[in-house]
């Protein structure tokens, strides 16, 4: 029996997810300033996905719906327990945190298939779903954000209760602490069963307080402002004064934005070094050859682009995310250009590991794009933010619809040609020559909203 298990052993999965790391915050995606040698090497040895998107969410804490989509492979309006009951006036309800119990999660499916599932770091999707998915864990943070030293962390609770009074405040920087636990797990794993090691960092989310050595790598005066830097957003997008937007002065000041970017890059480089330690542990333990490494983020954020600071919007800087995969079953040095969505990661990993896919997964495996059998998996991607913004993009043409809600928001549209205008600076909505694109995208967006039962349709 032991020999039979060894013959059919599935690859391990090391799943690394960052918080607030936008797609262009890596050297591999063309950023000439930030230093990410480990992630760049991972991209060079594996697959880099150029056009991966999040679906947004109904809450300003966008890490909740983004991670829910990733973990369940389902659309953003179906992923959390309260989605169908949420009204427009209750979008910050913490009931949104808990995953829809009718949906199987990636850890659950892999655990049922014989994987040893082990969770480390941030889990913002309810204690019950963590307990169902993971057979082990360490330094678990049930929450959205906190200081990187002093996070309330839980040891693994086999009963899955995790009482708040049992949390212990950390005394080590979060990225280092989570990497330490991942390394301990890798070196201690001796079983024949494959593992899913899920490591969820709280970096580079604010407070952006990189250790001094990494802060010293970036000086604000040397940091270029993005091409679409603005002192203020040109209109009310429905969420101009949420917490994230108030972390810098209004109107935006160039020097202050440069400092935010310097701190952000310092956090990312420190994170990159910690990931390097984990990858080295894989190599030292002999697990490197049979482990799929995944690196992604829940969403991005603005940091001065379009006059915004946070991620509560549907511009590229906030919904376009990095995704790197490297390991057995994957080619080396491949860049995938076709459109993809977070919900596609779940079925991709199931195909790579030969794991039966749950019937509740709506995503599509990215393997046809990876192998080159297909150049297009999705004709369009979609995203939503609360009851004030909706988006569709076909990869070139991008349409954003804004709605008024009470005394916030504006009834207007934007149309961008991402080929000619990747920074989304020239709104073509009033161009008579582009009306066919607008009509086409509006119709496709409406059909998607109807198919996923977008609650906005019942209130607009």
From TrEMBL:
Gene3D superfamilies: Alkaline Phosphatase, subunit A. Keywords: Calcium, Hydrolase, Metal-binding. InterPro entries: Alkaline_phosphatase_core_sf (IPR017850), Sulfatase (IPR050738), Sulfatase_CS (IPR024607), Sulfatase_N (IPR000917). Residues 11-354 form the Sulfatase N-terminal domain. Pfam families: Sulfatase. Belongs to the sulfatase family. This is Sulfatase-like hydrolase/transferase.
